[in-house]
């Protein structure tokens, strides 16, 4: 069983066939190719969950290193190499990252607090070093972050089984009331903003026996739950990308309860959410992260199970259909997060290290 974080987990499943990568460790979609980029990390079980770039020569990725305890992991790309950069809060997990500019970068996650509890963490990079910025909520975790500007930033996650959303106004974080499905465990896993009065957050709520999709919308004044469809027994949404008011995507995965999962893609057309067919892989797969270059050029990344091996996976939307693209493996597991390099059609994809641990995490770049 491979878990991204929270109670969202990919169930292992049966063998199935997909196109294989070339011997040069590249997988192509038209003129695009995935390639493995060399990461660095301390000894331990390393995982990267999110990545965000300012340019081809400036990108950040965050995650965790587990060795006796869970420690934060942050790496920076300077155009030629990745290097580990120390962060101030430990032990902790960093689950989301947002690069607003070269001297304005945010990382969010959780810090171990009392036994079996965590507290939200927000850290800021000013171009020289990382520092912790206090958040008002005492318990819970942030899982994702998005921004319209340096003074209009959203972080989403959970607290004691309820949803948690906080907003940065340029000087302080403030809790913004969000909605929670009563009688269930709620978790927001993705957030994306279009304007100061138009933002989306997605996730999952757990009721006895199954998981269901959870989507909330910000209209400039309040967060409200928007009805969203489910597929099969269990459905979970892991990431959201908002292109405009009539074009929003949420991705995740759905399981029929037999141990096999398939990617789940849902689209907002301005009036309702609907499920859009994804490639039927005939076995087990899931998507965890998404990034959009345009409404006709969207990528989702995740993992697929080939026998007993977990492999990186991605799929592409060309404006009319989703198609499967398999990144190079080289013994790694899946991809947990992805981000666009501004001004290009290129992406970064990040994920965990090799299953046996004590290896650098997975970082791949998509060149188009």
What does this structure look like?
The protein has 368 residues and is mainly beta. The protein has one domain (2-367): Neuraminidase, CATH 2.120.10. It has no helices and 31 strands. It has strands at 2-5, 8-10, 27-29, 32-37, 45-55, 58-67, 69-77, 82-84, 92-101, 104-112, 118-125, 130-132, 141-149, 152-159, 162-168, 173-175, 185-195, 198-207, 210-218, 223-225, 234-244, 247-255, 261-268, 273-276, 284-294, 297-306, 309-317, 322-325, 337-340, 347-351, 362-367. A 5-stranded antiparallel beta sheet has the order 3-4-31-30-29, with no helix packed on it. Strands 5-6-7-8 form a 4-stranded antiparallel beta sheet, with no helix packed on it. Strand 9 (92-101) and strand 10 (104-112) form a beta hairpin. The model is unreliable at 6-28 (pLDDT under 50).
Mean pLDDT: 89
CATH topology heading:
Neuraminidase
What is the topology, as strand order, of the major beta sheet? Answer: 3-4-31-30-29
Largest sheet: 5 strands, antiparallel
Q: What is the strand tally?
A: 31
For the record, what CATH class applies? Answer: Mainly Beta
The second-level CATH architecture is: 6 Propeller
Q: What is the domain tally?
A: 1
Looking at this structure, what is the CATH superfamily?
Kelch-type beta propeller
In short:
The chain has 368 residues and is mainly beta. It has no helices and 31 strands.
Keywords:
60% strand; 368 residues; four-stranded antiparallel beta sheet; Neuraminidase; 31 strands
